[in-house]
Design brief:
Blueprint lengths: L1 H8 L13 E3 L4 E3 L1 H8 L8 E3 L19 E3 L4 E3 L1 H5 L8 E3 H57 L6 H47 L4 H6 L4 H5 L4 E5 L13 H5 L6 E5 L19 E12 L10 E4 L4 E5 L4 E6 L4 E6 L8 E4 L5 E5 L4 E6 L2 E7 L3 E8 L5 E7 L5 E7 L2 E6 L16 E5 L5 E5 L4 E5 L5 E5 L12 E6 L5 E5 L4 E5 L5 E5 L7 E6 L5 E5 L4 E8 L1
Length: 556
């Protein structure tokens, strides 16, 4: 009985029911034995693609041409393509490889991601979690020790000082509560990250065992997020210092608790990679940068394109001179539009580490966060106009702002809506930035330098993380046709600084120390304004007048 049931479940040829057919038609999605392949192909009412059973599903259907299957992969466009895609000329001059070869490479990358999650990232998070648990235990022990010391000392004091003793106890409890809030918050965040890692691990394993090519190609890596480990909390626990009892100075005699300090070290935890460098392997700049694709948008003469920010390797946020922020894909398709909360033109846009959209509203004096079409005002600035903004690797915000009377300019670092740092003057007390309304776009480099393209000052101003001036780049003047007026600014994975020289129709590439490396000026750039770089170091340039976004490759 059992053997008959098993036999009924065996794969059979769709035409003759021969068991264990070795062939498969990807289009008709039926199993075939070798003898029936020819008969099946004689059916000319539709196309057929017969492959071995193990290779079924390896040719995805073309997203652009219905009923066509992709057997090649365009490396420049990063998409599967079919024969009709090639004949259309859209991929002329692009490097094309067999899709099975690309699939193998992609799966190898997935294997590496899975290995990193299982062997490096996940154990590190578990280790950090165990340290947090020990800190909580030490916190309780120390608080109990402090309370006992206070009780013992209180027994020696007159009834008149009971109020003071109780006050100090309250201080201990308050400090403990504040500390617990911080530790509990980090503990919950780490647990949430571990859950995400476990889910990503499971998803990767599922993908590796799957032949669903669409899912493999649409997989978006989250390892960059997980590589950024949580900040390390270093706490200086309070101590109780008893004094000899003196009734005339009883409050001073009781002693005091040292202040609770919680130090956050963004890079306190590190990930060990044997033989790895802090930056990706160096890729030299090519002699002749070239355009990968030309993205047409609805911007143009009536609504000049002013800014661009990468949401992913496939989608870009854009801003112009109206009150809309638009998301485009690489084919120029409008994916989404966001209207500003106030109806004013956004002065700048940026994308956070969590892929949320930021924009500044100068006339409303606000910095706003957009998540799932919901707009939240995170910073409001009475007396100052917020101009430009970027999100840092630690999750802070850097905001360039000027006073109402345009006499002062500064960069302020925020954690949420809390001001953490102000950068305004150099070591001689002179202003670092021009105080006009003209562009001063900002980016944090990989080495944590803060770079501002100060257009009216004609300089890229770079300070270190502490706000100390490192250098000002004013351009190689001997080759400049018109005065250097930098507008857009970004950085790549090697800490190179790229800035848009709008009036001279070129991009300047500098190293992290301000040394000029080369121009990008050979691709018919016209008034480049906003720029950004994706995770593969492809450069996107927004042309102010044409409304086009051009994607460049400038590295080997």
């Amino acid at each position: 009985m059992e053997s008959r049931t098993w036999a009924q479940d065996v794969l059979r040829c769709h035409l003759c029911e021969t068991p264990g057919p070795p062939m498969y038609c990807d289009i008709c999605q039926i199993h075939l034995c070798v003898a029936c392949v020819g008969k099946h192909l004689l059916d000319e009412s539709k196309e057929h693609k017969v492959v071995t059973f193990k290779k079924r599903g390896f040719s995805p259907e073309c997203s652009k041409h219905s009923k066509k299957f992709c057997e090649l992969y365009c490396e420049q466009c990063d998409i599967p393509i079919c024969v009709q895609c090639i004949s259309s000329g859209d991929h002329l001059g692009h490097k094309q490889v067999e899709i099975l070869k690309t699939l193998k490479t992609k799966k190898e990358e997935l294997e590496k991601e899975l290995h990193e999650l299982e062997k490096r990232i996940y154990p590190k998070y578990k280790d950090i979690l165990s340290k947090i648990t020990l800190q909580i235990d030490d916190l309780h022990k120390n608080s109990k020790k402090l309370t006992t010391a206070l009780d013992k000392h209180g027994e020696c004091l007159h009834t008149e000082i009971d109020i003071a003793i109780n006050k100090l106890k309250s201080d201990v409890n308050e400090m403990e509560s504040k500390h617990l809030v911080v530790l509990d918050k980090q503990e919950n965040e780490i647990k949430a990250s571990i859950s995400e890692i476990e889910k990503s691990t499971a998803d990767l394993k599922k993908l590796l065992n799957s032949n669903e090519v669409d899912l493999v190609f649409t997989y978006k890596s989250r390892n960059d997020k997980f590589r950024k480990l949580p900040p390390k909390l270093t706490v200086s626990l309070p101590e109780f210092t008893p004094q000899k009892i003196d009734k005339d100075q009883i409050y001073q005699q009781i002693g005091c608790l040292s202040a609770l300090t919680i130090k956050t070290e963004e890079h306190g935890y590190t990930m060990d990679y044997p033989g790895a460098e802090s930056s990706p392997p160096s890729r030299p700049i090519i002699d002749v940068p070239w355009i990968i694709t030309d993205i047409k948008t609805e911007y143009g003469e009536s609504n000049r394109l002013r800014g661009v920010s990468c949401l992913s390797n496939d989608e870009l946020w854009t801003r112009g001179r109206d009150n809309m922020i638009r998301l485009y894909n690489l084919h120029g398709k409008l994916v989404k539009s966001i209207k500003t909360k106030s109806g004013n033109m956004p002065c700048d846009i940026a994308v956070t580490q969590r892929n949320a959209l930021l924009y500044t509203d100068t006339y409303d004096r606000t910095v706003n966060l957009v998540e799932n079409t919901q707009i939240q005002t995170v910073i409001r600035l009475p007396g100052w106009y917020p101009l430009y903004v970027c999100s840092t690797s630690s999750g802070d915000l850097l905001v360039v702002m000027i006073t109402e009377d345009k006499t002062q300019a500064k960069v302020v670092r925020y954690f949420g809506s809390t001001e953490k740092q102000t950068i305004q003057y150099d070591g001689k007390g002179q202003p670092l930035y021009s105080s006009d309304i003209y562009p001063k776009l900002i980016v944090e480099n990989r080495n944590l330098d803060i770079c501002v393209a100060d257009s009216m000052a004609g300089a890229v101003v770079v300070v270190n993380q502490a706000g100390k001036l490192r250098f000002k780049y004013t351009g190689p003047t001997s080759t400049t046709k018109k005065p250097f007026k930098p507008v857009g600014i970004t950085k790549d994975s090697h800490s190179r600084i790229l800035t848009a020289d709008c009036v001279n129709h070129r991009i300047h590439i500098l190293d992290q120390d301000g040394q000029f490396l080369r121009y990008i000026d050979n691709c018919h750039l016209l008034y480049p304004y906003g720029i950004c770089v994706d995770t593969r170091d492809n450069l996107f340039v927004a042309e102010n007048e044409t409304g086009k976004v051009k994607k460049f490759q400038y590295y080997m």
